[in-house]
Fold this sequence. Notes:
alpha/beta, Rossmann fold, 3-stranded parallel sheet, two-stranded antiparallel sheet, 5 strands, globular, disordered C terminus
Amino acid sequence: MSRNGKFALVTGSSRGIGRGIALKLATEGVSVGIHYSTNKESAQDTLAGVRRAGSDGFLLQADVTQVEQVRGLFDRIRRRTCASTLTRSPPAPPCWRLAC
Length: 100
């Protein structure tokens, strides 16, 4: 199934399972928000992989344990993508709504 034109924020996508999810989404044409907390180099490696897979994305740094940083994260996403709705599977809240 093609997901061209869609955007996904993948938290913790600088390595591990998050990286795998980001790369898989990229093969389906999804533009990916590569989130990292402290390891920018690994996040840049993930972004390079997303681009090699034929998609695009951008880096997003935030400590998701800090409410203000999470708000800033979604503000940056909204400015870059004009996304009206972002979702993530549990255990996070099921849906974040952003006004565009």
